[in-house]
Write a structure and sequence with these properties.
The complex is a heterodimer.
Chain A (H helix, E strand, L loop, with lengths): L38 H4 L36 H12 L22 H7 L2 H4 L11 H18 L3 E3 L5 H19 L5 E5 L5 H8 L3 E5 L9 H7 L4 E7 L11 H10 L3 E5 L19 E3 L20 E3 L11 E4 L5 E4 L22 H37 L17 E3 L10 H10 L6 E2 L9 E3 L7 H19 L19 H6 L8
Parallel strand pairs in A: 2-3, 2-4, 4-5, 5-6
Antiparallel strand pairs in A: 1-7, 6-7, 8-9, 10-12, 11-12
Chain B lengths: L7 H11 L30 H13 L22 H7 L2 H4 L11 H18 L3 E2 L6 H16 L3 E4 L5 H14 L2 E4 L10 H7 L4 E7 L10 H10 L3 E6 L18 E5 L15 E5 L12 E5 L5 E5 L6 H4 L12 H37 L5 E3 L7 E6 L3 H10 L6 E2 H4 L9 E5 L6 H16 L4
Parallel strand pairs in B: 2-3, 2-4, 4-5, 5-6
Antiparallel strand pairs in B: 1-7, 6-7, 8-9, 10-11, 11-13, 12-13
Classes of the chains: A alpha/beta, B alpha/beta.
Chain lengths: 518, 456
């Protein structure tokens, strides 16, 4: 059962052919359903899509003993072949540009193309991070303007811009807390994390050298405040709370939690992954937060790119601001902008805890996020949160009669609607609904997360879905719920109409094949 | 508001379905005192595409872009020509606006690219395997040190003085919190890299030695000798490559005995971008696979036996292992990995070798011209596309004055190593295929004017 014809690329339909097209084509392609080989099957090392002049001189004699024995075994393609290869591959992907992508906690919203255009202006894209400051005033101003927006929108004292993504921002926030505790001469080594938290929270706390203690959730999907208070003490460095939380609910006791943590000498880290629900409606700074990362690739629409790059600036309270890592941009009283790095940290920034990245952070994401923010303005960002929450509640109320919504009775949700797979026919679960959505032409929601709900399905439509689009999604979700309740066996083998059927993940993990072998 | 599809009538209709009187009813869980009752004061309101474009274009125009001046900066970020098709392809919405491929049946495009990328990186580095990318070179370097500690069960890392100082800062910053012991060797203005000092610092507590190749001053360490010394005590060699184009000309670190090879992939496909987003590369021996950080894509088959790809070995990762994960990383640099992979596919092995040869030749031409200037001495005779020059003056001032004359004339060691004594006359200059002879001549003329006082 070989999937590759050594004489060329021709996928076989496998031994069963079950569910595949009834007719076999000679090419292995079916109309616009196009298969694509690997570059290692298509290209050769002596082929190239780039014209390069011959070098004007031979390598220096001193380099002789370091020279590579032969060119690297990397296949090349000419431009037409390369463009075709990647274009054909692109068509095997689902994307926001094709339809709703309702992954809870991921905020897959439309990515405005103006952002892409602005990030590609040579004044931003073709600037070296170590050019003299006199030649990069505009770049520093982008960082400063974005920083100013983030500080104002969150009601915080300052922002560390350099973290590369959300988890990196979490790390930055926790290291600020560590540095602040060190400055106080205190050794506190426990961080409290709710059991509903995203996996990055405990992983980050452990990475920063803390011990993690879990806080249970209440039956209505919130942090158990009494359990949290009972754990506070002189060994607790702080808490990490996601708000709105991973059940799609606002933590109404956030301020009380913050007050209790502060009274016990700890700090409050807020996971800002779900900031999209409250931007312009609530400022985390008003809720007692000391540090919060902001995923620019979520709330501020920088593209996810198939898994990054992201950007994770961290807003900080007065208490933590002095410890922010280098480098950063400051604005003087005269309006002039200064880049602070190791060379000139001087006395004013002696407490900076160090450096997290080689250069200034995700500049390309800063230009996109600032473009997005300026497009929306203060009024538009508020509307973003309102529409995101409205869309999620619309999905929640339109489906709760066919899918159990464990926390729906206690009130509205924020920007995510949470369902469970309780009540489906014997042997049917969340996975069947998710794979069924693929056949319906949608990307599935987040599944089996948060862990506190059995068979969780977390739907985040975002504000950029139209009502018509939501109605189509709701109709599909309802249909699938009813099919799963009725025991429709065809769901077990879904998806039927995707470029691939269910993939064997066990085989992939048991004998990992991570690189192509000739 | 052009990005928000709901009309007022639709909002009202949806509120009716929900059974809420107003949108504020949906925010009832937010304590009254914390709720904002209108747009935050003193912030601008929404703006048209044209207005925003005007604002951003004005900011961009305040920068001197590398392409509009004679340009010789490197130090971990290199300006290479990126074929037009690369940027076109990465902007296809199916790549640009997709998420991490958690649903493999509808993400084979991204997954196959990652599999191809992993193979390309492994072949370039001479390692058995590679992961699906990290944030950047500096964070990949720290993750390599952590991984070496897991593999060897030792906790002391030795950093060569030739390691990029920002990378060293990242490592020392993180180690201060994790308790790992870091021995940082001094950076000296010597013609040869500090191989002997690195070897001398290895003892039986050493988990790894971290050696940049070529190093931050442009020198080329003897990785084979260092690997042999490291392996003798059970330590690993972590090689750091900040200019992957070099590997078109000089031997792959993995072929010289490096156990883990990390790098910055920005040179291919990604561009300068004022420092980010960049692309962390990470390759290693296959036997370490379960200790590796970051995402991995693996080959498998689907229910019909067709070849396909999935994210695999996720039991190492934070969303499964939580506080026991090998790394806290969630997002990586997917789109930058795509750009890197496309650029490398367009080059091919022979193209990369030729590109590397051209880079080296340009650097030779640059060195030849600049060292004719009184007050300029060449530090290292052996280099790839970047060298250290020792000037007769403080190089920080020279770089600033060159900028005033419209020349982006390298990176001063004083800026890179602000606290080190004795390096302030050092100037790091790089040349690539984008460097023209006119650029070199302009640079030389202006530099000579600054050092010797000849009127420009």
């Amino acid at each position: 059962m070989s999937a590759v014809n050594a004489a060329g690329w021709k996928p076989t339909m496998g031994e069963t052919g079950e569910g595949g097209p009834a007719m076999q084509t000679a090419s292995g392609d079916y109309g616009l359903m196009l298969e694509e080989a690997l570059i290692f099957e298509l290209g050769s090392a002596d082929k190239s899509g780039v014209d390069i002049d011959a070098p004007e001189r031979a390598p220096a004699a001193g380099l002789a003993k370091f020279l590579r024995k032969g060119a690297p075994a990397l296949p090349g393609l000419t431009e037409p072949e390369a463009v075709r290869h990647y274009t054909r591959l692109s068509r095997q992907n689902y994307a926001i540009d094709l339809g709703p992508f309702p992954l809870g906690s991921c905020t897959m919203k439309h990515n405005p193309r103006l952002n892409e255009k602005m990030a590609r202006l040579p004044g931003f894209a073709d600037v070296h991070p170590m050019q003299p400051q006199s030649t990069v005033e505009g770049a520093l101003e982008v960082i400063e303007q974005l920083a100013d927006w983030l500080i104002t929108l969150t009601g915080m004292a300052s922002v560390a811009m350099s973290p590369k993504a959300g988890a990196h921002g979490e790390l930055c926030g926790l290291l600020c807390i560590r540095a602040a505790l060190d400055a106080r001469g205190e050794q506190r080594d426990v961080v409290l994390v709710p059991e509903s938290a995203h996996g990055t929270n405990p992983a980050t706390a452990a990475f920063a050298g803390f011990k993690v203690e879990s806080i249970p959730a209440t039956p209505d999907g919130r942090v158990d405040v009494e359990a949290l208070k009972a754990k506070l003490g002189p060994n607790v460095a702080g808490v990490m709370i996601t708000n709105p939380n991973t059940c799609g609910l606002f933590e109404p006791e956030m301020k009380a939690i913050g007050d209790a943590v502060h009274a016990a000498g700890g700090y409050v880290y807020c996971d800002g992954a779900n900031f999209n629900a409250i931007v312009g409606k609530v400022r985390p700074g008003d809720l007692g937060v000391d540090a919060m990362h902001i995923n620019l690739h979520k709330t501020f629409s920088t593209p996810h790119g198939g898994g990054g790059p992201g950007a994770g600036p961290v807003v900080l309270s007065e208490a933590l601001a002095p410890f922010a890592p280098l480098p950063f941009v400051t604005r003087g009283a005269d309006g002039s902008i200064h880049l602070v790095e190791e060379e000139n940290r001087g006395e004013g920034h002696a407490q900076a805890f160090g450096r997290m990245v080689a250069f200034h952070g995700q500049m390309g994401m800063f230009t996109r996020a600032l473009t997005y923010i300026l497009s929306h303005g203060a009024d538009g960002l508020r509307q973003v949160a309102e529409d995101a929450v409205l869309n999620a509640n619309y999905v929640l109320r339109s489906c709760e009669d066919v899918l159990p919504a464990p926390f729906a009775k206690s009130g509205p949700c924020m920007h995510e609607a949470l369902f469970s797979d309780a009540g489906l026919a014997e042997g049917f679960s969340t996975l069947d609904i998710a794979k069924g959505l693929i056949d319906e032409g949608f990307h599935p929601m987040t599944v089996y997360f948060p862990l506190v709900v059995k068979g969780a399905m977390l739907v985040e439509p975002t504000e950029t879905e139209s009502k018509a689009g939501l109605d189509r999604f709701i109709a599909s979700l309802r249909s699938l719920a009813e099919r799963a309740k009725a025991g429709d066996q065809s769901l077990h083998s879904a998806p039927h109409f995707a470029p691939r059927r269910r993939l064997d993940e066990t085989q992939a993990a048991r004998k990992p094949v991570l690189v192509w072998q000739d | 508001m052009r990005y928000l599809p709901l009309s007022p009538a639709e909002r009202a209709e949806m509120l009716g379905v929900i059974g809420a009187a107003s949108v504020d009813d949906l925010f009832v869980d937010v304590p009254e005192a914390a709720r904002l009752n209108g747009p935050i004061a003193d912030l601008p309101m929404h703006a048209s595409e044209m207005a925003v474009e005007r604002h951003m274009t004005r900011l961009a125009a305040k920068n001197l872009s590398a392409g509009s001046a004679p340009f010789f900066l490197g130090a971990g970020a290199y300006r290479h020509h990126v074929p037009a098709s690369v940027d076109h392809l990465i902007q296809r919405g199916e790549f640009l606006t997709a998420y991490t491929p958690y649903q493999p049946e509808i993400a084979q495009g991204t997954l196959q690219v990652l599999f191809e990328f992993q193979t390309q990186v492994a072949r370039l580095f001479g390692t058995d395997i590679a992961n699906a990318s990290m944030y950047d070179g500096s964070t990949a370097c720290w993750e390599a040190i952590l991984m070496a500690a897991r593999v060897t069960r030792k906790g002391k890392a030795v950093l060569s003085g030739g390691l990029h100082p920002h990378y060293g800062e990242v490592v020392r910053t993180m180690a201060r919190f994790t308790g790992d012991e870091i021995v940082s060797l001094d950076t000296d203005l010597t013609a040869e890299p500090d191989d002997a000092a690195v070897i001398g610092a290895i003892d039986d507590k050493t988990s790894c030695v971290v050696v940049q190749y070529p190093d931050v001053l442009g020198r080329i360490p003897d990785l084979a000798a260092i690997a042999e010394a490291a392996h003798a005590t059970g330590a690993l060699l972590v090689a750091v490559v900040t200019e992957p184009v070099a590997l078109g000309l000089i031997e792959a670190p993995g072929a010289l005995g490096a156990d883990i090879v990390v790098g910055e992939g920005q040179s291919l496909g990604v561009g300068l971008q004022f420092g980010g987003p960049y692309l962390g590369l990470f390759g290693c021996r296959e036997k370490f696979v379960r200790q590796m950080p970051g995402r991995l894509c693996g080959q498998t088959v689907d229910a019909e036996g067709k070849r396909g790809f999935v994210l695999t070995l996720s039991t190492r990762e934070q969303h499964i292992r939580r506080e026991k994960a090998t790394s806290n990383i969630c997002t990586n640099s997917g789109l930058c990995a795509l750009a890197f992979s496309i650029h490398l596919t367009l080059l091919g092995g022979k193209g990369l070798a030729q590109l590397a040869a051209v880079n080296h030749a340009k650097a030779q031409a640059l060195v030849e011209r600049l060292t004719r200037i009184p007050g300029v001495e060449l530090l290292n005779q052996v280099y790839f596309n970047e060298v250290t020059l020792v000037l007769s003056r403080d190089a920080r001032e020279v770089v600033r004055e060159l900028a005033d004359r419209g020349v982006l004339g390298g990176v001063s060691l004083g800026r890179l190593f602000p606290v080190a004594d004795g390096l302030h006359k050092g100037l790091l200059v790089a040349a690539t295929e984008t460097t023209t002879s006119e650029d070199i001549e302009t640079f030389a003329t202006e530099l000579e004017a600054l050092l010797v006082g000849v009127p420009a």
